[in-house]
Design brief:
Blueprint: H1 2-14, E1 31-33, H2 34-37, E2 52-59, E3 72-77, E4 81-86, E5 91-96, E6 101-105, E7 120-123, E8 130-134, E9 139-143, E10 149-154, E11 158-164, E12 169-173, E13 179-184, E14 190-196, H3 203-212, E15 222-225, E16 231-235, E17 240-247, H4 258-261, E18 272-279, E19 283-290, E20 293-300, E21 306-311, E22 315-319, E23 325-329, E24 334-336, E25 339-344, E26 363-369
Parallel strand pairs: 1-17
Antiparallel strand pairs: 2-26, 3-4, 4-5, 5-6, 7-8, 8-9, 9-10, 11-12, 12-13, 13-14, 15-16, 16-17, 18-19, 19-20, 20-21, 22-23, 24-25, 25-26
Helix pairs in contact: 1-3
């Protein structure tokens, strides 16, 4: 039961009734056939350098008050500021683009203005406020740009968002709720519900569907692929839009296997265990675990073919000026338009970046793509 409870909690952080989906006209959508190439030999020579116009390293200032862990999330960056969450310590930081820390924030607890866990952080692009979503206390806490408490609001029916912009936010429903996604404005007024799971889905099956639904590293769009469906969708503030077909075939889970997935038997299953689908200017970055093997793949949008695959690395490589190659884990990427930002452990860059030593804070690598 402890294992099952853990999986249900994971489902709340991550998130089938076809009648609730827009009509799928697969003949009009690009088709990417994952099943056909999953067991084929594919080149692995692709690197981030191949599609990068400019790479910039930003060392984050280090002192005894701002020691960062390796569990970081880049939640915001523009031409002036960078906002980073340290999920391990429950802190968040505002940096200048020079890498110098300007403010640090930590308000852990159960009182007013305090959180148990930073489930999601949204930063207003006009610097008016920052919203912490705390699934532990089931509330949203709004601070001003300096970290002063502005207001608190209870999370009702929805959990913390998985995506937010200045126009709308996307949240997963609870396992007991009828819909998988709730679309709301930033005042948390729900104005649309997407993907109704029918009566054949109890809480266990709904939790499995939420866990198996793909995640996305893009900060300016939300795309996802559901189990038992080949269509990849994009959720906008206006509609649920089909983007392309990702043929999973025999690697997709079957309805009758959903309950089994939520037990320890999941370790022996050969279906796709998790998937990440992210959009780059000319490619899709698709990461997934199938059986015991983990894949990171680049697919050409125009050709609808796989370009490269890297196994068991949790991401694609980047070559430093010295010739050394480092892996950029997909789960740490922050993708917005043609910009990709990722924290790199200092020990991987010692000797390659002037002034960086192994004990320093991580270094931000900013890639401007072609």
């Amino acid at each position: 039961m402890a294992f099952l409870s853990f999986l249900i909690v994971v489902a709340l952080v991550v998130c089938h009734n076809p009648k609730q989906l827009p009509e799928e006209k697969s003949e009009e959508l690009p088709v990417f056939n994952l099943e056909a190439v999953a067991e084929e030999t594919v080149p692995s020579a692709f690197m981030w350098n191949d599609i990068t116009e400019k790479a910039t390293f930003i060392p984050l200032s280090s002192d005894e008050k701002t020691l960062l862990s390796g569990s970081l999330g880049i939640t915001f960056m523009d031409n002036e500021y960078i906002v980073i969450v340290d999920y391990k310590t429950g802190s968040f930081y505002r940096y200048g683009v020079d890498g110098k820390v300007q403010r640090s924030f930590k308000y852990e607890g159960n009182g007013p203005g305090e959180y148990v866990y930073i489930s999601y952080l949204y930063v207003d692009p006009g610097y008016a406020f920052m919203d912490i979503y705390d699934s532990g206390n089931r509330k949203r806490i709004r601070y001003d740009w300096e970290g002063n408490l502005l207001e608190e609001r209870e999370l009702v029916d929805i959990v913390a968002p998985v995506f937010a912009t200045e126009h709308y936010m996307v949240s997963c429903g609870m396992p007991e709720t009828e819909y998988q996604y709730f679309i709301a404005d930033l005042a948390m007024n729900v104005y649309r519900k997407d993907i109704r799971m029918g009566e054949g889905y109890d809480e266990i099956k709904r939790s499995a569907v939420q866990i198996l639904t793909s995640t996305c590293q893009n900060k300016d769009m939300f795309i996802f692929s559901r189990p038992m469906s080949d269509t990849v969708y994009r959720i906008t503030d206006k509609a649920l839009e089909p983007l392309f077909i990702l043929k999973k075939g025999k690697y997709d889970i079957k309805y009758e296997e959903l309950g089994r997935f939520m037990t320890r038997e999941m370790k022996t299953m050969k279906c796709l265990m998790w998937t990440r689908i992210s959009s780059l200017p000319e490619y899709y970055l698709i990461d997934y675990k199938q059986g015991e093997h983990q894949h990171s793949e680049i697919w050409s949008k125009n050709e609808q073919t796989i370009v490269a695959r890297v196994r068991e690395k949790n991401g694609l490589p980047f070559r430093l000026s010295s010739g050394k190659e480092i892996t950029l884990p997909t789960e740490r990427l922050c993708i917005k338009g043609k910009t990709v930002i990722v924290p790199v452990p200092a020990e991987e860059l010692e000797g390659d970046i002037n002034g960086v030593t192994a004990d320093d804070n991580p270094v931000l690598l900013v890639l401007e793509l072609r």
